[in-house]
């Protein structure tokens, strides 16, 4: 940790400074520097294997890094710290996985209310009420007592979003939330994400949904081979990508 | 013939049921039940701790536990019983009752077997469940307790039942170190009658069969109840579907 990224009352929600990460000899992330402002919606795009998942997973420290630092609301999340402290920080960063990862042994409402009860100590009755409200918000109030195995992919992913929101995180991370879905279910998940963005949630999303990027993102990060090659507002990125590899990526997407 | 069985049971039911008690130590079926219940009750949590140690990132937990599990699984239970019988009193310098020695041996032995099942159950869940729990702010122990183990243990039910059933059967080996259980009582009866070993030991076999069968029955109906509650396209794991896990883990 050569770079100090801790500072009180940072203007940015997330600040990534000089982050490098290796898997053995292979360098997945090469000196990443980037920031997400409060309330900003950032879309990360880039070719397969470029390190998007790795990058987003370092933000809540599901992956460790080799050097650099990542601050979340001014606190360095990769600094040495007690496990309980890290858990507390993590609980304030919502994460939505490509494969949903709902807890199949719990009902939908228990999926959403379990962590507030067990991690934050919210009284069960209050957590339950809150969970029902969140489920209503993602359009699944009628599925509260179902089990994840009884839901479609799109419904499961909406539950996963509600589950993350139940911890009241100021920031939400999404790692290809719609890639595992049948095409007809993509829209229902994207519309939940859109409404979140409209309410001012700070979001960092890896996605191949360029329509979503164009309409909702404030900025695009284009990443290739472990480097952020371009960061630009969507209108600039889609109309005149500057980096040749970004141009090629967009050309490939149109085909 | 049938008359023989009835006579044996009429004459010796109390001995078969509680041994010499209250003139001697509690024995017979009562002791077999107590020994089995205690062995299962302790082997279960012990197996979870052993599995967690074997999956630990710390080598000083992982290595010794791996060695213990391999050794335990690689020797016959009878060896282990005799070994504990002679070594535990040496180490502790106390006159340890054979019941206790049998209990400790069974817990270690069945714990080691069960720990392989638990470990496979945890590993087979994949990383995603742990990631999801950690991302929500659960610590390692919280994630295990609320997310990983409830699923892993549920998937393990068939293998767990077979381990528990073999625990009941294995209590009979306590005979060699004079644990006063049902087998011990039956052999006392046999020694008194001298002429009817077939009848005596058939009664013994029937009692063990009923014991093991009722345990299997209860466990199966518990599993069916959970499966029904979670019924859905992905999670209605009927015992038949969960069975392959058992075959896999028993080959480990
Ligand atoms: N645990 C690991 N060990 C070794 N290499 C890994 C590991 N995880 C990922 N990698 C490699 O790191 C690179 C980046 O992977 P990552 O999953 O971050 O890519 P991605 O941009 O998310 O790709 P995709 O669009 O396919 O999801 C890939 O080349 C991948 O093979
Ligand atoms: Mg990925």
Shape of chain A: globular
Percentage of residues assigned to helices of chain B: over 70%
Biggest sheet of chain A, open or closed, and with what strands and sense?
A: 6 strands, mixed
Present as ligands are: adenosine-5'-triphosphate, magnesium ion
Bin the helical content of chain A.
25-40%
The parts of chain A where pLDDT drops under 50 for at least 5 residues are none
Rg on CA atoms of chain A, Å = 18 Å
CATH class bucket of chain B? Mainly Alpha
Helix-strand string of chain B: HHHHHHHHHH
User: CATH superfamily name of chain B?
Assistant: MetI-like
Would you write up a description of this structure?
The complex is a heterodimer of chains A (255) and B (252). Chain A is α/β, with parallel strands linked by helices. The longest helix of chain A is centred in the last third of the chain and has 16 residues, at 183-198. Chain A is built from 9 helices and 10 strands. In chain A, α3 (108-120) runs parallel beside α5 (153-165), α4 crosses α5 (153-165) and α5 (153-165) packs parallel to α6. Chain A has helices at 52-59, 83-90, 108-120, 124-137, 153-165, 183-198, 210-216, 234-239, 244-254; strands at 12-23, 26-37, 41-45, 67-72, 75-76, 93-96, 171-175, 202-206, 219-224, 227-232. Chain B has a single domain (2-242), classed as MetI-like (MetI-like fold), CATH 1.10.3720.10. Helix content of chain B is 80%, strand content 0%. Chain B is built from 10 helices and no strands. In chain B, α1 crosses α8 (182-193), α5 packs across α10 (239-251) and α7 (140-170) packs antiparallel against α9 (197-229). The radius of gyration of chain B is 21 Å and the shape is globular. The A-B interface holds A 60, 62, 83-84, 87-88, 90-95, 97, 99, 101-105, 114-115, 118-120, 146-150, 163-164, 167 and B 128-129, 131-140, 142, 146-147, 150-151, 154, 230-236. Bound molecules: adenosine-5'-triphosphate and magnesium ion.
């Amino acid at each position: 940790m050569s770079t100090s990224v801790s500072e009180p009352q940072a203007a940015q929600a997330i600040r990534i400074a000089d982050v490098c990460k290796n898997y053995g000899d292979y360098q997945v992330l090469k000196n990443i520097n980037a920031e997400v402002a409060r309330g900003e919606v950032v879309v990360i795009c880039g070719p397969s294997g470029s390190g998007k998942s790795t990058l987003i997973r370092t933000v809540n420290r599901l992956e460790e890094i080799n050097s650099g630092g990542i601050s979340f609301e001014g606190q360095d999340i990769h600094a040495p710290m007690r496990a309980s402290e890290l858990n507390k920080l993590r609980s304030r960063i919502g994460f939505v996985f490509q494969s949903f990862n709902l807890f199949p042994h719990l009902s939908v409402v228990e999926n959403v209310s379990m962590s507030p009860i067990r991690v934050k100590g919210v009284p069960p009755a209050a957590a339950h009420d809150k969970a029902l409200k969140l489920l209503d918000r993602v359009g699944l109030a009628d599925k509260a007592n179902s089990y994840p195995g009884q839901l479609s992919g799109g419904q499961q992913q909406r539950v996963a979003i509600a589950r993350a929101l139940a911890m009241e995180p100021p920031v939400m991370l999404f790692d290809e939330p719609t890639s595992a879905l049948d095409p007809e279910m993509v829209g229902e998940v994207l519309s939940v994400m859109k409404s979140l963005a409209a309410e001012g949630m700070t979001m960092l999303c890896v996605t191949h949904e360029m329509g979503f990027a164009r309409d909702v993102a404030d900025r695009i990060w284009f990443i290739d081979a472990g480097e952020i090659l371009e960061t630009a507002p969507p209108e600039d990125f889609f109309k005149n990508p500057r980096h040749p590899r970004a141009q090629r990526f967009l050309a490939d997407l149109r085909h | 013939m049938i008359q023989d069985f009835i006579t044996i049971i009429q004459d010796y039911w109390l001995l078969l049921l509680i041994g010499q008690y209250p003139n001697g130590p509690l024995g017979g079926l009562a002791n077999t039940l107590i020994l089995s219940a205690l062995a299962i009750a302790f082997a279960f949590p012990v197996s979870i701790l052993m599995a967690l140690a074997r999956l630990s990132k710390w080598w000083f937990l992982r290595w010794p536990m791996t060695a213990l599990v391999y050794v335990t699984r690689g020797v016959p239970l009878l060896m282990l019983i005799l070994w504990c019988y002679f070594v535990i009193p040496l180490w502790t310098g106390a006159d340890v009752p054979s019941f206790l020695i049998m209990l400790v041996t069974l817990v270690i032995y069945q714990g080691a077997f069960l720990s392989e099942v638990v470990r496979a159950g945890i590993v087979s869940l994949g990383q995603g469940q742990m990631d999801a729990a950690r991302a929500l702010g659960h610590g390692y122990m919280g994630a295990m307790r609320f997310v990983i183990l409830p699923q892993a243990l549920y998937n393990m039910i068939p293998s767990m039942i077979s381990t528990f059933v073999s625990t009941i059967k294995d209590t009979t080996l306590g005979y060699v170190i004079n644990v006063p259980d049902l087998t011990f009582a039956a052999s006392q009866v046999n020694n008194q009658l001298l002429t009817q070993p077939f009848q005596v030991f058939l009664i013994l076999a029937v009692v063990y069969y009923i014991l093991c069968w009722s345990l299997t029955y209860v466990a199966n109906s518990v599993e069916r109840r959970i499966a029904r509650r979670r019924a859905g396209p992905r999670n209605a794991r009927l015992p038949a579907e969960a069975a392959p896990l058992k075959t896999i883990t028993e080959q480990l």
